[in-house]
Amino acid sequence: MKTTTAATKTPGRFWIGLVMLAAMPLAMALARAAAADESANGKDDAAIKQIVADFSNGWNTHDAHSMCLSLAEKIEWVNWRGEALGTREAVEKEHAELFADLYKNSHRIDEVKNINYLTPELAVVDDYWSMTGAKKRDGSDWPYRAGLYTFLMAKRNGRWMVIVSHAAEFNAQAPK
Prior knowledge:
Structural class: alpha+beta
Strand content: 35-45%
Oligomer: single chain
CATH topology: Nuclear Transport Factor 2, Chain: A
Helix content: 25-40%
CATH class: Alpha Beta
Strand order of the largest sheet: 2-1-6-5-4-3
């Protein structure tokens, strides 16, 4: 007499069950690793968002030096007109002149929309901004502006800093 078990009747079920049993610990380990990674990114996300907030605060107090503290000494900075600057000193000088004239009454609101980590120490940051109170080069009012800064930030000696900045202007109209 031949005895049959569930395993001999349906060998496929047996192997599926065995694979599922073996895969469970792997799935749990991957979930723990992902949670740990999110936790680590949470600290970096907060630090990066603080860099953008400090930049915005420097702008809103019209303090070019304070605004530029998070920029690397050597930086690729491209403003919304496509003009490139290569040092923090040059960016600070340009903004000091703007704050004394066209942007002396300007106010910005910045919002980090996305942080994409290329490596644990390199991140692309999308900063959507809007501005009120600026003047155009002809002296006329520029009541509302909006755009995007794309920052490439690097973590150096435990501190995030901007190493590349490209700005885009949306030429937006004021909300009604």
